[in-house]
Design a protein that fits this description.
single chain, about 325 residues, mainly alpha, Rossmann fold, Tyrosyl-Transfer RNA Synthetase, 2 domains, three-stranded parallel β-sheet, 5 strands, about 10% strand, binds tryptophan
Length: about 325
């Protein structure tokens, strides 16, 4: 048994992984695996809450997400990697927690109405979608995890997880679940190729699965400072989405160089983009290599998932024995 504190986080398998997911989540997960007892999983049931009408996408994205976990640097010898739907105990705990969760708590979670608005084209007036944060609570507390690395958007979900853990312990008079805490780390915001936040739904993302050609094409066609029309015009890098990406992927020296070059018309936008392309390739190169290796080795991938899932299941079975017991199910 490890005496390191436990960290847990999940990512929905609802499509491809982009540079924003990499910098905002996966690279942090990779750092944490060095010091914590980390559990990382593919939240495929969560993906179903909004993607239930598209089983084809589900089928493709689970393995691809695990491939991206590994390609980003998660090491199955250092952390436990698994797939949510393979561990039925998550669903059992979700069901049991639903007995003690006041409806109002779920209705009040701000992401509930926000996401419904955002995805208006889908019917999200479902029971499963309302229960999204409760399923997430089950995911977390079933491991009795202390820290949950997530983005600020997930803070309301962590808040309800804490409330539910507290309510459960209070009702059954036993400290079964520690209250989990969001582990918020400051990350550079990764803008998309149009300057807005990088997001699948905006169509402005650079994906880990993009080819070198696609990445190059996406960056080459980016808009820059709209006021800089001719090569001889001076520009303001702060108005250029390209420069915003330099802030994430380029060294300080390179950032200064392209900024000065832009302000003095010393370099053109293409020169500036070439530097960015080189640096994005440097990040993606090893990821592409690892993706290819894993794609050619499905048996290895299967074994990694199998081993992680068995290990995680042991923990969930222990927790569920306690839960069933205090709830009178034994
Ligand atoms: N809701 C999370 C997201 O969209 C994914 C998730 C599901 C998760 N279960 C979790 C994150 C448990 C942390 C812990 O990013």
């Amino acid at each position: 048994m490890s005496n390191k504190e436990r960290v847990l986080s999940g990512m929905q398998s609802s499509g491809r992984v982009h540079l924003g997911n990499l910098v905002g989540a996966l690279q942090n997960w990779v750092r944490l695996q060095e010091t914590y007892d980390c559990y990382y999983f593919v939240a495929d049931w969560h993906a179903l809450t909004t993607g239930y009408a598209n089983p084809e996408l589900m089928r493709e994205s689970v393995n691809d997400l695990v491939i991206n976990f590994l390609a980003a640097g998660l090491d199955p010898d250092k952390c436990t990697i698994f797939v949510q739907s393979r561990i039925l105990e998550h669903a059992e705990l979700h069901l049991l927690l639903s007995m003690i969760t006041p409806l109002g708590w779920l209705e009040r979670v701000p992401t509930y109405k926000e996401k419904q608005q955002e995805l208006r084209e889908r019917d999200l007036s479902t029971y499963g979608f309302l229960g999204y944060p409760l399923l997430q609570t089950a995911d977390i507390i079933i491991y009795r995890a202390k820290h949950v690395p997530v983005g600020v958007d997930q803070v309301p979900h962590l808040e309800i997880s804490r409330e539910i853990a507290r309510r459960f312990n209070g009702l059954y008079n036993k400290e079964i679940f520690p209250e989990p805490e969001a582990l918020l780390t400051a990350f550079p915001k990764v803008p998309g190729v149009d300057g807005r936040k990088m997001s699948k739904s905006y169509g402005n993302a650079i994906y880990l699965s993009d080819s070198a050609k696609e990445v190059e094409q996406k960056i080459r066609t980016m808009t820059t400072d709209p006021a800089r029309i001719k090569r001889t015009d001076i520009g303001n890098p702060e108005f250029s989405p390209v420069f915003q990406l330099h802030k994430v992927f380029s060294s300080k020296e390179e950032q200064d160089e392209v900024a000065v070059g832009c302000r003095t018309a010393g370099i053109g936008c293409i020169d500036c983009k070439k530097v960015l392309i080189k640096n994005v390739f440097e990040v993606l190169g090893p990821i592409w290599a690892k993706r290819e290796e894993l794609a050619n080795n499905p048996e290895q991938l299967r074994q990694i998932i199998e081993a992680g899932t068995s290990k995680a299941r042991k923990v969930t079975q222990e927790t569920m024995a306690l839960v069933r017991d205090v709830m009178g199910l034994r």
